[in-house]
Amino acid sequence: MKFVNAAVRLIIAGVGASTVYLALMEDESAWDTLPLQATVAVVLVQLIRTAFVLADVNFSATWIEVGATVYAVVQGVLLTVRDDIPALTQELFLGLTVTQWQLWVIPGVAVVAWALFGRSGPVAWSWVLIWPLYVLAYTGGFAWRGQAIENAEYPHAYLNLDSLEWRGVAENGLVFGLAVMVVGAALIAADRFIPRGS
Predict the structure, then answer these.
(1) pLDDT tens digits for range 2-21
(2) Rounded to a whole number, what is the distance in angstroms from the first to the last CA of the chain?
(3) Which of 81, 169, 177, 182 has the fewest Cβ atoms within 10 Å of its own Cβ atom?
């Protein structure tokens, strides 16, 4: 089973890394977008987990995989709902663009990988309060950068201080932070209440 686990994770990492590469080839500023950053987090987690699986080392920091999965799911859902999707048009495969893979497919398979192979121990409820800090820092940092640096572009419309002012950006950041808390709590609850396979 460990080789199936490792193979699935390597496929996810490979596809994710391909989307990152193609996104950056099409637009270097894609690095600033949530889909690319969430995909990088998922890729790194999958590679680390693969190394631990193949080395037969117990990976007890499940909160890392759950956190990356939560970020990926939340950014995919919220950016799609808000129609705030980076305009990358490069097709990867299955008729989907790089951005569509980063918004929908990578988060989905990250959840599946975690559900099938990543449930190695319970995640503390306290992480629900810590995971939103990245989203809040991202929101504040890029909103500030857009104002402080001349000709800086906002990677997402929800960060645009020129049109939303600080109150609108803060509200958007809080929505993202709350979404991270809700999805994180849902995954922790699922992990605790759904029996693990033997």
Answers:
(1) 899 999 999 999 999 999 99
(2) 11
(3) 81
Cα–Cα distance for residue pair 19/90, rounded to 1 Å: 9
Which of 125, 128, 115 lies closest to 196 in space, CA to CA? 115
Beta-ladder partners of 93: 96
Beta bridge partners of 84: none
pLDDT tens figures, 89-144: 777 778 888 888 999 999 999 999 988 888 777 788 999 999 999 999 999 999 99
Q: What does each C-alpha distance from 168 to 12, 14, 41, 140, 143 come to in angstroms?
A: 35, 37, 27, 12, 11
Coil, strand or helix: which one is 5? helix
Contact 45, 12 (CB under 8 A): no
Model confidence, pTM? 0.88
